[in-house]
Structure formats: structure tokens, C-alpha cells
């Protein structure tokens, strides 16, 4: 009789242990989630500040929070370029996945390779007193292996780069992954991304950049370089932040 009960007891013990472990893991995940969200928010602020050249690298939470007081976060309707009240539960990535709040991109329209985008987007305005000092735009587009996320900071003329910061990507380490290399990013300040008509003109070139609208491409990573260029052309164009930037140039912002 005991021999017949032994397998049953083993199964019961295994089930109980599995349930206990599941509860422990779930509890730990719930407890850690608020901290993870705080760290994610801190990283977002840090990367915006780095793009705007208000912060080098690193920075403590108190330093970042203090510097970020200079930054005003707004939501833009991309079709009109106008500021709107943030929609309930607004999250740009989540809105890009929702058919009710996204725009599907097809063919030549989708030069950034993102397939769809949110109808709305965050913009970050850095003020110096009452004056607009820097505009920070979130941008993303496909490289060779991954969607690359970054922040592009512009002067109020909307043409001149203040700084550029990629913070999330899955490109090849040592090649396309160099988009996060501070040395490569250091060549972006003062580059011209738009011409006088407001059209995107930035180019990533092989070899050395010769003009103010050229940036050295990534050695051995042509497709990633193309992805960066296409990303900026999309988000600075009419289907991206173009209408908003036009309003800035017109003095409406």
C-alpha cells in the first residue's frame, strides 16, 4: 500500500512546491515592478538630458531630477503639429500598436521601416528662462537587425543639431551597435538636418563628412547607417514632426 501511495505523495509535493514557487516569483515581480518603472523613467530623463547636452553621462537621480526641471514635456498631434492634452493612458509605443490610435505606414511612406506609428508623440522643450532653448524629439527606425530608439535635440531654428543619443538597439556589436558610441555621436552637434525650405537633408556618408549636412557613416555597417538616415528623414519629414517644426519656425510654439 505504501508503495502505491509514494508516487502520489511525490506528485502532490511537486505540485505544492510548484505553486509555492509561482506565488513567490509573482510576488517578487509585483514588488520589483515599481522600482523597474522608476529606473525606466530615470533612464528616459537621463537620455533626454544627454541629447540636449545638459548632462554628460551618468548622473545621480537627484541631479537628473533637478536638471529635468528645465524640460517641459508636451504631446503633439503629428498630423497638425499642434499641442494637445495627453490622451488618457498615453504611451507612444502602446498607441502605435492600437488600431484606434495608430497610423499604418505602407510602401515608400515607411522609409524608417516601422510599419505603424502613434498618431501622437511626445516632444521635450528645454527652456532658458522664458526662451525656448532646445527641442528634443523621440525618433525610432529599423536598422539591420532591430528597431533603434533615440532622442534628437535641435536648436529653435529646427535645423541645427544640439545633440543626438541612441539608447535602445540590437545592432551588431562593434559595427552597427556603434550608434551608441559617444565618439560617433560627438560629431552630430552643429550638423544641419534640414535645408532652408524645411526639407530633411542629413546624410550619412562613407569616409569623411565634407559638408554641414553630412555625418561619417558607421564603418562596416552600411544598412545600420542607412537606417539612421532614413529614421531622421522620416521623423523630420511631413509624416513625422514636420508640421510641428514648421509651427516652431513660424513662431507659433
UniProtKB/TrEMBL annotation:
Composed of six subunits; NqrA, NqrB, NqrC, NqrD, NqrE and NqrF. Pfam families: FMN_bind (PF04205). Residues 143-239 form the FMN-binding domain. NQR complex catalyzes the reduction of ubiquinone-1 to ubiquinol by two successive reactions, coupled with the transport of Na(+) ions from the cytoplasm to the periplasm. NqrA to NqrE are probably involved in the second step, the conversion of ubisemiquinone to ubiquinol. It comes from Kangiella spongicola. SMART domains: FMN_bind. GO terms for molecular function: FMN binding; oxidoreductase activity, acting on NAD(P)H, quinone or similar compound as acceptor. GO terms for biological process: sodium ion transport. Its EC number is 7.2.1.1. This is Na(+)-translocating NADH-quinone reductase subunit C. The keyword Cell inner membrane applies. The gene is nqrC.
Amino acid at each position: 500500500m505504501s508503495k502505491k501511495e509514494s508516487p502520489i505523495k511525490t506528485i502532490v509535493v511537486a505540485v505544492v512546491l510548484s505553486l509555492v514557487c509561482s506565488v513567490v516569483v509573482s510576488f517578487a515581480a509585483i514588488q520589483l515592478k515599481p522600482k523597474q518603472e522608476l529606473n525606466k523613467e530615470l533612464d528616459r530623463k537621463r537620455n533626454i538630458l544627454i541629447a540636449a547636452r545638459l548632462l554628460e553621462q551618468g548622473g545621480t537621480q537627484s541631479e537628473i531630477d533637478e536638471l529635468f526641471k528645465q524640460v517641459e514635456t508636451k504631446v503633439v498631434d503629428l498630423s497638425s503639429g499642434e499641442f494637445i492634452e495627453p490622451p488618457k493612458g498615453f504611451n507612444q509605443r502602446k498607441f502605435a500598436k492600437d488600431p484606434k490610435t495608430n497610423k499604418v505606414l505602407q510602401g515608400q511612406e515607411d522609409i524608417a521601416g516601422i510599419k505603424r506609428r502613434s498618431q501622437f508623440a511626445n516632444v521635450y522643450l528645454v527652456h532658458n528662462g522664458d526662451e525656448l532653448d532646445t527641442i528634443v524629439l523621440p525618433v525610432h527606425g529599423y536598422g539591420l537587425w532591430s528597431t533603434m530608439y533615440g532622442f534628437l535635440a535641435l536648436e529653435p531654428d529646427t535645423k541645427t543639431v544640439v545633440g543626438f543619443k541612441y539608447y535602445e538597439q540590437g545592432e551588431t556589436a562593434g559595427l552597427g551597435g556603434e550608434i551608441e558610441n559617444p565618439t560617433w555621436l560627438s560629431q552630430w552637434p552643429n550638423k544641419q538636418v534640414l535645408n532652408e525650405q524645411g526639407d530633411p537633408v542629413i546624410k550619412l556618408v562613407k569616409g569623411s563628412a565634407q559638408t554641414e549636412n553630412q555625418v561619417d557613416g558607421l564603418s562596416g555597417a552600411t544598412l545600420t547607417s542607412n537606417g539612421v538616415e532614413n529614421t531622421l528623414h522620416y521623423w523630420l519629414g511631413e509624416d513625422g514632426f514636420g508640421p510641428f517644426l514648421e509651427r516652431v519656425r513660424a513662431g507659433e510654439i
